[in-house]
Automatic annotation (TrEMBL), chains A, B:
Keywords recorded for this protein, A-Z: Lyase, Pyridoxal phosphate
Record family assignment: Belongs to the Orn/Lys/Arg decarboxylase class-II family.
Positions of transmembrane segments: none
Keyword Lyase (UniProt): yes
Keyword Calcium attributed: no
CDD domains: PLPDE_III_ODC
Catalytic activity: L-ornithine + H(+) = putrescine + CO2
Superkingdom of the source species: Bacteria
Protein name per the record: ornithine decarboxylase
Classification via Pfam families: Orn_Arg_deC_N (PF02784)
Pathway named in the protein's UniProt entry: Amine and polyamine biosynthesis; putrescine biosynthesis via L-ornithine pathway; putrescine from L-ornithine: step 1/1
Residue ranges constituting the Orn/DAP/Arg decarboxylase 2 N-terminal domain according to the UniProt record: 65-294
EC number: 4.1.1.17
Length: 413, 413
């Protein structure tokens, strides 16, 4: 077996509790984000009545989100998380706006380069990479790589010699609707040792990243994580290694419903946390928004294929749509992400409870059973519904051809 | 609102308990299926070393399964559930063997016709169909349609006038690894009324279908369902409608591990149940195997991208593969379907516990965390693993390009 590059150094004293209590105070008065303006998309849908299911994405909303986030966190370099929606139209627009890009694979790097992004604007942010893909990224000029283990660090040292590397740490992400688990990141003490080891392997130990959980509704959650990052900076400095960058990850929310703080509130909370932990010696900051940037920009129109009841005493109707979990709505798993769903056109009928399901013969293809959705009681086969804020993590989750259904179609306006 | 076509008729007296207790007795001595012979696939993999991830399917295993099932249930017409794996190579082979086909969509009907199947051999088995797709099926000569609601029945009457229809009923499917829920089927009393109504709409009320749950490991589960079907036959007969067919659905298992009864045991249990419920007046029988027919025929070879630990005191390694939940292994959801996973080549190292995860940046892309998998302690990046009995519900569940990764590639030999 290989020698452990990292040494054990467990003593830790993060002063996070103090910083965190200050942040909690700030959250109480957090302003709420306004519902996105989907009027351009609605006009398009009314004018073109596209075959369903169909996602329509308004690129001007993407641009607006980019601008709002820049204003809220002016010190941060924005690396768009391509996996949220890699459509060329979105990548082109973001390249034009000056965005950088967080990529998950060689495939995504190719897509971003094809959109005209400079390699210096690309981070290979997946901590799980094949050697050939690292070598490809290095060959095309990508110089920033994530890792969270010694084995990955050694791969990067071999196939992207001299590159800048950052280590993802495990943090607790309370309050996220799509909480992360231990799949990514390592303990901060291991991170510090590995970053010190990176220099010995000829790499540039650049910084620390974390993720506080997707659709994170509590801006205060960045406070503890930033304090952990500072702890890693200090441990590395004690061993003669100067770190420069903190990657605040993603987690910035789409406006699925009420209760979502403004991006300005996130910016303010993060600014306070950075000041509390780093004081005058502020690090370089990067962020990796995906859902925030494109979620609100999309509306998915779907057709009701069937409305039925299972027995004479059933108190809920089953409403089957022409899109489901395997046609793009994978994120309904667990029913945590709850899209706003409304019928097209007016109905005077009262609302009544429904179970919403997809069109496949798969019994797991149920969208919302426990979430308490209601729809007009006169809804019937052929009616159309709209699912709002569906621009992120929909098209690419689509199955290739499950049950013989085509992948989700998308139109970018 | 429309008038209810179906009348309420709730009195029921299924004598299922007696039949069921007899069947339970039979299960105790059920013989176990042998592990499938993957030697042709292994030879292919050794000779060609295909780029991973790659599924290799042995068509001779599919043919063997078809033959075994015919022998076990000689009275049944086999409708292959195309959704399990719609590869043209599989459809071609099954057409040549004389199989019929259960389809979920117009797309699948096109695929089956392209393989040379006669329309009379095709059932449109999805209870959720768009009017245009019903009309398409009718136009190309498909004459057998599933339904489980009045709204669907009216659609079929309008767009496939004169067709044969069968009603899916809700049954309890205990003992299935991928249990069904209420998404499909209606209460038997409603089914009886709707089948009687079908005749009034100009359709041919043909029979009853059910599904006892996918990967159903208890052959006795068909007993209750068959008794329910007989109850519907009797209620329809009382109203002057003669039903002819019982569709026993799918649920026949792949050999993921020990404890799987032989298909002969299923045939015997089903034969006894049919005799107990229907006596001398046996109905036409159809079955819809999907997983059973192609699951064992596939082996998926994957590469280990990374082996890591999250902290110095972590007692399990994380093993990241180049295939995950969004690249074809969707059925690991909930960790009920547990594929046999073994490394390629010999290792003298002891086995040690692992968490298995996919290559995407998605924290939900974890294959097995709680299932207790172990792998050799010297496993490292670049090693290959094989996942056995992965021929069903893998290729078509693949996402189009999630995280920039290509869909699962498959080779048919």
């Amino acid at each position: 077996m290989k020698n452990n590059l990292a040494k054990v150094s467990r003593s830790r004293s993060v002063n996070a509790a103090v910083a965190n209590s200050n942040l909690k105070l700030a959250v109480a008065k957090t302003p709420e984000a306004l519902a996105p303006d989907h009027s351009r998309i609605i006009s398009y849908l009314e004018a073109h009545k596209p075959a369903t299911p169909c996602l329509v994405v308004d690129l001007s909303i993407v641009a607006g989100k980019y601008g709002d986030l820049r204003a809220a966190l002016p010190a941060a370099e924005i690396f768009y998380a391509v996996k949220a929606n890699p459509a060329p139209e979105i990548l082109d627009r973001l390249v034009a706006l000056g965005s950088s890009f967080d990529t998950a694979s060689a495939g995504e790097i190719r897509q971003v380069l094809a959109a005209g992004a400079k390699p210096a604007r690309i981070s290979f942010g997946n901590t799980i990479k094949k050697p050939a893909d690292i070598a490809f990224a290095h060959a095309v000029g990508v110089d920033l790589f994530a890792f969270d283990s010694e084995a990955e660090l050694r791969k990067i040292a071999q196939h992207a010699p001299g590159a800048r590397v950052f280590c993802r740490i495990l943090v607790e992400g309370k309050g996220a609707l799509w909480p992360l688990n231990k799949k990514f990141g390592c303990a901060p003490e291991m991170a510090a040792d590995l970053l010190v080891g990176a220099a010995k392997l000829g790499l540039v130990p650049h910084g620390v990243s974390f993720h506080v959980g997707s659709q994170q509704l509590d801006p205060a959650q960045w406070g503890n994580a930033i304090a952990e990052a500072k702890w890693v900076f200090d441990r590395a400095a004690e061993q003669g290694v100067t770190l420069r960058m903190v990657d605040l990850g993603g987690g910035f929310p789409a406006t699925y419903g009420p209760g979502v703080p403004t991006v300005a509130a996130y910016g303010a909370a993060i600014g306070r946390a950075l000041k509390a932990s780093f004081g005058a010696g502020q690090p370089e900051i990067i962020i990796e928004p995906g859902r925030y940037m494109v979620g609100d920009a999309g509306v998915l129109e779907t057709e009701v294929v069937l409305v039925s009841q299972k027995s004479y005493d059933d108190d809920r109707r089953w409403v089957y749509l022409d899109v489901g979990r395997f046609g793009g709505l994978a994120e309904v798993e667990g029913e945590a992400i709850r899209y706003r769903i409304r019928p097209v056109g007016e109905s005077a009928a009262p609302e009544a409870p429904v179970v919403l399901a997809g069109p496949t013969c798969d019994s797991a293809d149920i969208l919302y059973d426990k979430a308490g959705y209601t729809l007009p009681s006169d809804l019937e086969s052929g009616d159309r519904l709209r699912l709002y804020s569906t621009g992120a993590y929909t098209t690419t989750y689509s199955a290739v051809n499950f049950n013989g259904f085509d992948p989700l179609r998308a139109i970018y306006i």
